[in-house]
Every structure is written in C-alpha cells, then in structure tokens.
Design brief:
Keywords: Carboxypeptidase, Hydrolase, Protease
Number of helices: 4
Organism: Orthonyx spaldingii
Strand order of the largest sheet: 2-1-3
CATH topology: Aminopeptidase
Family: Belongs to the peptidase M14 family.
Strand content: 5-15%
Helix content: 25-40%
Number of domains: 1
Number of strands: 3
Order of helices and strands: EHEHHEH
Shape: globular
GO molecular function, one term: metallocarboxypeptidase activity
Distance between the termini: 25 Å
CATH superfamily: Zn peptidases
CATH architecture: 3-Layer(aba) Sandwich
Largest sheet: 3 strands, mixed
Radius of gyration: 14 Å
Protein name: CBPD Carboxypeptidase
C-alpha cells in the first residue's frame, strides 16, 4: 500500500515496469480530481507517505500517473475509462493493505474532508 491518488493511464504502450507517464486525453481533469482528494488529506498532500520499506517514495502533490508509478496491464481504472467513459481515480489510503480495526477511526478522520471535497467536484 501507499498514500496517494493515482489516475489513468495505469498501462503504457511500452509496458515498462515503472517511470513512463501515460497521458490520457483527459489528463488535466484526472489531475484536478486527484489533487482535489489529495490536497485535503493530511498525509497524502505532503507527497511523502513514509511507508515502511518505501521511505524514499514521493509523489508531488500526493498524486501520480498510474503507469509512471508502476505499469498495470488490463487494470479496471483504464478499462472503465476506455470502454465506459467512467472517470476513476485510484486511492491508496494506507501503507497497510489491511489496517487493524483500532486504526479505522484515524483513517476515517484522515479521509473525511478529502471525500467531501472529491464529492463536491464530481
């Protein structure tokens, strides 16, 4: 896991594992929506999730183009955008994929304002 808002495309023509910015036709809209979420999240907005084992990983403004981070061939985010015209971003909300129950109230507080800001934009 991580703490970042990722936007299409997750796949790139070269299928290199990482580092390829794969721009969609609606790139500016996706960046706008991702920033709307990230800018209200106390950790995400720093661009430094500080996840164990990935302490050096950074995301400017708390967002990333999916393929630039890591290439995912056949992902749902790209599929829905290309075939159903659905504008989706992927939210990585925690360094831990399965946070313990005791952490959920803190996660809610970290994400509440971001969710409201995102809903307002939609």
């Amino acid at each position: 896991g991580s703490v970042v808002a990722s936007y299409p495309y997750d796949d790139s023509p070269t299928h290199r594992p990482t580092g390829v910015y794969s721009k969609s036709a609606d790139d500016e809209v996706f960046k706008y929506l991702a920033k709307a979420y990230a800018s209200h999240h106390p950790i995400m907005r720093t661009g430094k999730p500080n996840c164990p084992g990935e302490e050096e990983e950074t995301f400017p403004d708390g967002i990333t183009n999916g393929a630039q981070w890591y290439d995912v061939e056949g992902g749902m985010q790209d599929y829905n955008y290309v075939w159903a015209n659905c504008f989706e971003i992927t939210l990585e909300l925690s360094c831990c994929k399965y946070p313990p129950t005791s952490e959920l109230p803190k996660e809610w507080e970290n994400n509440r304002e971001s969710l409201l800001a995102f809903i307002e934009k939609v």
